[in-house]
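INFO  loader      accepted 1 record
INFO  loader      residues=157
INFO  predictor   begin
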Amino acid sequence: MVNFTPTFAKEEEKSEQIKRHESIRKYMTPATKLISFTPDQKIGEVIGTILNKKISGAPVLNDKKQLVGIISEKDCLKVIIDEGYHNLPPSNHTVSNYMTKNVKTISADKDVLDAADLFLKTNYRRYPVIDEKGKLVGQISRRDILRAAKAIKASRW
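INFO  predictor   done
INFO  writer      dumping tokens
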């Protein structure tokens, strides 16, 4: 059987294969531009930063810049429950008392389409991007993936 696929269709197919393997590295927010916290920071200070900077959460890093957790608005709501319901003194706790410790992460080499699929299968709005030593190198969000998809699609035309 003879293949009658036009040359331009074959080229488009090759282009699609190349684009499929584009990593998130180019689209993520680098760690140097992220607000981050440490496990020993006072939770009241963190809540203030979250409100002032209008962010919904941030990575928690140890002194080696390794990811040890995430603190989110939802985690901070636990403070209200502890202080109000359990009648605890205000904000004497640290980030380590409230942060999420088992954090799902993603590699900077992850394919854009695979990352999009990951977002579709979870309720996460962002993933920390780490290197092989657990050091935070960036963060990828749903919006970053949308920008990547738009850029990839535009480069095909």
